[in-house]
Amino acid sequence: MDIEVLALLTNMVGADRVSAAEADRLLHGRDQSSHAPHLPDAVVWPHTTAEVSAILKLANERRIPIVGWGAGSSLEGNPIPVQGGIVVDFQQMNRILAVHAADFQAVVQPGIFYKDMNKILGQQGLFFAPDPGANASIGGMIANNAAGTRTVKYGATRDNVLALEVVLANGEIIRTGSRSVKQSAGYDLTHLIIGSEGTLALVTEATLKLAPLPEHFSAVLATFESTAVAAAAVYQIIGSGLGPAALELLDAAAVSYMNMDESINLPVAPTLLMEFHGATAETLQTELRLVQEICLDGGAAHFSAGVGRAERDRLWHGRHQLGEILFRAHPNEMYLITDVAVPISRYPELAAYTADLINQMSFRGALFGHAGDGNLHTVIFTPEASRERDLHRFNDQVVQKALQLDGTCTGEHGVGIGKQKYMVHEHGEAALGLMRQIKQLLDPHGIMNPGKVLG
Ligand SMILES: Cc1cc2nc3c(=O)[nH]c(=O)nc-3n(C[C@H](O)[C@H](O)[C@H](O)COP(=O)(O)OP(=O)(O)OC[C@H]3O[C@@H](n4cnc5c(N)ncnc54)[C@H](O)[C@@H]3O)c2cc1C
Predict the structure, then answer these.
(1) What confidence tens digit (pLDDT) does each residue in 251-296 have?
(2) Which residues touch 102 (CB under 8 Å, ≥6 apart)?
(3) Residue 452 half-sphere exposure, CB side, CA atoms within 13 Å?
(4) Residue 48 Cα to ligand 1 middle (Å)
């Protein structure tokens, strides 16, 4: 990086919070996806919004690419600085600025990791519900509109953010939204920024909606003879008006991988892993009886409810570990992660199609997903370098199927690098053109996370 730019950055934040050292650049050159790494020229760790503003002003004047960084846990290359430039790592802007417990809200800086935040909020009986498996930062979750196991009840990140402070490409600081849960005043800039993957602005503060920790809850397990039959039961459960707090589909292979964690010992079969919350023990019992009936009518071979706290925590720990276990089980192999989502009535068709395709193409890996909101993942591996094109062909076919079923190429991981090729097909030229105009308006010099979302 230009020595003069490094000196200016050092003047802004101090020498201990700017680095062009190879080790720091390597740490900020890749995420958890299979996309090729690319190193930034420098990394900066701001402490204040004013510092972020000064960094952006400089980058805008000098046309230097700027990439926000949370935990680097993305799965679609979202934070990889493909054109180099400056990575703005928010890990030291990680404070809870206010908790409005009476309103179920917290105001936080973007670098706080949601698991750490929830430990603190839990002391007041509150939590932030969206939960991607990895310990992501709030800024990264906002930028990717992350979701997770609890989205079926509480919504994605987008549904749980009320207001933002953001810094635009030219360094201007703006506030969007308010603390009111109802807002109807003009264009919704908060939700324009959420899911924009750092391509429109950097988030420096967020007002989050919180939920009370449930008093009565139960994990539920049901196994089925095939993935297709389990997916059909998902539709029955949601269609019956039951309100699961989590509803996850796991094929038999996914269960086998989970069992590699020595604390987990589940029967190896296509499984629905669910959780129900109740305002009282009685309402919880009523829901559990109903879900049992639906599962058994829907062909469940085995059903167990009323799983206690320790067992429930163990199961969810196992589910959240699944991604890591998969990667550990296939070191040095090529892999690909899919993230399609469809309307719930089309979920059984999507799951059956994808399960067949894995078999037809003889990939190793697992099929699983946040089934309650129509989201299906596959992680497939191959040790053969010659099969790289097949991995992409698999993704193309799964995405095409999801779009045919009125769904989307990405339910929660974002467009990043790998999904740009599907954007025209999903949105059409006119809508994509409008997105390009919005990008041009907010970031005329194209410095904000270039090479992402719109290419
Ligand atoms: C094992 C595993 C399981 C996962 N499971 C899920 C899951 O269930 N659901 C899910 O949604 N995701 C999941 N993910 C993906 C990942 O955790 C999410 O995408 C998460 O939102 C990324 O957050 P991060 O802090 O790591 O952000 P990063 O990866 O660091 O960055 C993500 C994006 O945000 C931008 N960014 C970062 N900070 C800011 C900021 N302050 N302002 C503007 N832009 C910023 C970056 O430039 C980048 O485009 C999983 C990942 C792993 C490794």
Answers:
(1) 999 999 999 998 899 999 999 999 999 889 999 999 999 999 999 9
(2) none
(3) 31
(4) 21
Cα 52 to Cα 92: distance, rounded to the nearest angstrom: 12
The whole-angstrom separation of Cα 106 and Cα 61 is 35
- Give the position of tokens 């679609």: 76
268 within 8 A of 223, measured Cβ to Cβ: no
Residues with Cβ within 8 Å of 454's Cβ and at least 6 positions away in sequence, in order, are 199, 420, 423, 432, 435, 436, 439
Please state the length of the chain: 455
Q: Is 75 in the pocket of ligand 1 (CB under 6 A)?
A: yes
* Structural element, H or E, at residue 223: strand 216-223
pLDDT per position as a tens digit, 119-140: 999 999 999 999 998 999 999 9
**Residues 6 or more apart in contact with residue 276 via CB below 8 angstroms:** 217, 218, 220, 242, 243, 244, 245, 284, 287, 288, 291
Residue with CA closest to ligand 1 atom 21:
141
Residue labelled with tokens 């324009």: 192
Predicted confidence (pLDDT) per residue in 294-321, tens digit: 999 999 999 998 777 888 888 999 999 9
Domains of the chain, first to last: 3-89 (3.30.43.10), 96-212 (3.30.465.10), 216-404 (3.40.462.10)
Q: Which atom of ligand 1 is nearest to the CA of 90?
A: 41
Retrieve residue 299's tokens.
């062909």
Task: Pull the structure tokens for residue 215.
Answer: 């008093």
Instruction: Give the residue among 171, 231, 181 at the shortest CA–CA distance from 209.
Output: 181
- Locate 57 and state its tokens: 């002003």
Answer left, alpha or beta for residue 306, where phi above 0 means left and psi between -120 and 50 means alpha. left
Residue 34 Cβ contacting ligand 1 at under 6 Å: no
Rg (C-alpha) for the chain, rounded Å, is: 22
Distance 317 CA to ligand 1 centre (A): 19
CA distances in angstroms from 130 to 45, 115, 118, 398, 411, listed in the order given:
26, 10, 11, 25, 13
Beta bridge partners of 203: 166
